[in-house]
Amino acid sequence: VFPGSVDATGQRATLGVLGGGQLGRMFVHAAQRLGYFTAVLEPDAQSPAGLVSHHHIQTGYDDPAGLAQLAQLCQAITTEFENVPAQALQTLAQTRPVAPGAAVVAIAQNRIEEKAHFAACADLSGVTCAPYAVIETPAQLQAVQNDRADLLPGILKTARMGYDGKGQVRVKTAAELAAAWAELGSVACVLEKMLPLTAECSVLVARGWDGQVVSFAPQRNVHVDGILAVTHAYEGNMPPALADKACEAAVSIAHHLGYVGVLCVEFFVVEDGSAHGGLVVNEMAPRPHNSGHYTIDACDASQFDLQVHAMAGLPLPQPRQHSPAIMLNLLGDVWFDASGQLREPDWQSVLSLPGTHLHLYGKSEARVGRKMGHLTITGPDVASVKTVARRAASLLS
Ligand code: ADP
Ligand code: MG
Question: pLDDT per residue over 68-85, tens digit each?
Fold first, then answer.
């Protein structure tokens, strides 16, 4: 699908995305920069991506008429939201190239299948996931309580629909485990051993229809209350041997899945001397990822550019990072002062700092914990980026 092309009926080359959140918005921006028209399928009338797209199909993700319209308008389709029904991607794939495909999205949507996939390619990737057990039935709960004391203290996570630390309960004892499973609605879960993390990192890879892969260097991520808070993206952000290992693992996971598009693989760095060789794979997101937003301002091709290239069958350039960067997530919390009053953040001061790039997602209402935007800081060297990031963070606290 070449950008800017017009077919015999006058229809413009159009790329489609299922989901209207901020990831869709940044995808739309990247596609439009190349001359594509865009179509967003999203039920919310005021969604970040719908507001900036040429076409906004305002239906549910599984609405047959909406999906038919999306397929009719677009030459290739992607998703920005991993809990979009895999069936919707399956339906679209009958008539259009869809990247990533329904099968890999279905794996990433379910922690049980995701972990089974990581285990299946552990020999190739060189990394395993944290020790875990599946709990789908009362009998399995009982068996884990009886035989898997090695998994405590642990984290019970719902198999489906968890994100930003939601759908998780930390448990110390077998009794707490039973209570937590009930609290989560006795749905399918995994119990994961709590690991002593020294750091977390993620790797973004892009894979084309022909199996070509390019990747970004791993970024180090700091989570607060289960939500990404800060991403450190510069040389020396983690030990080079671990960075190489994470990169190779992410690439082999993408190959093993036959993945097409941008994939983010998240890792734990665990205390040395453990059985895991320092690196444990946590989860994957079948789409561009919050931890890769710095690539817009700090690299010569962003994760969204690569998503466009991959789905449209354009060449995949190996991205080059030209500036060290730190990304600060801007949650709705920033819009409230200490006494809980709504306020406008001090953009005047933040934007007067050198190398600050503000991205706001166009959400009309700030809520605590809601991702409203992010601030990427770039600079000539790591020390100055860190200094500006500290100042920006204190202005925004
Ligand atoms: P989500 O889908 O909400 O991102 P994660 O599985 O990534 O769920 O968990 C969110 C955060 O909780 C992780 O980034 C990490 O900080 C912490 N966490 C999750 N699993 C473990 C574990 N097994 N050991 C230690 N910390 C964990
Ligand atoms: Mg996570």
Answer: 999 999 999 999 987 889
Is 168 marked within a binding site? yes
> Which ligand number lies closest to the CA of residue 171?
1
pTM over 0.90: yes
ipTM of the complex: 0.98
- Cite the beta strand spans of the chain per DSSP E: 14-18, 37-41, 55-57, 76-79, 132-135, 154-158, 168-171, 189-193, 197-207, 213-215, 219-224, 227-233, 261-270, 279-285, 325-331, 356-360, 371-378
| pLDDT tens per residue, range 273-308 | 555 668 999 999 999 999 999 999 999 999 999 999
Q: What separation in Å is there between the alpha carbon of 220 and the centre of ligand 2?
A: 13
| CB of 223 shorter than 6 A to ligand 1 | yes
The residue whose CB lies within 8 Å of the most ligand 1 atoms, and thus the one to mutate among 150, 169, 268, is: 268
Q: Does the C-beta of 155 come closer than 6 Å to ligand 1?
A: yes
Domains of the chain: 14-98 (3.40.50.20), 131-193 (3.30.1490.20), 197-395 (3.30.470.20)
Q: Is 248 annotated as a binding residue?
A: no
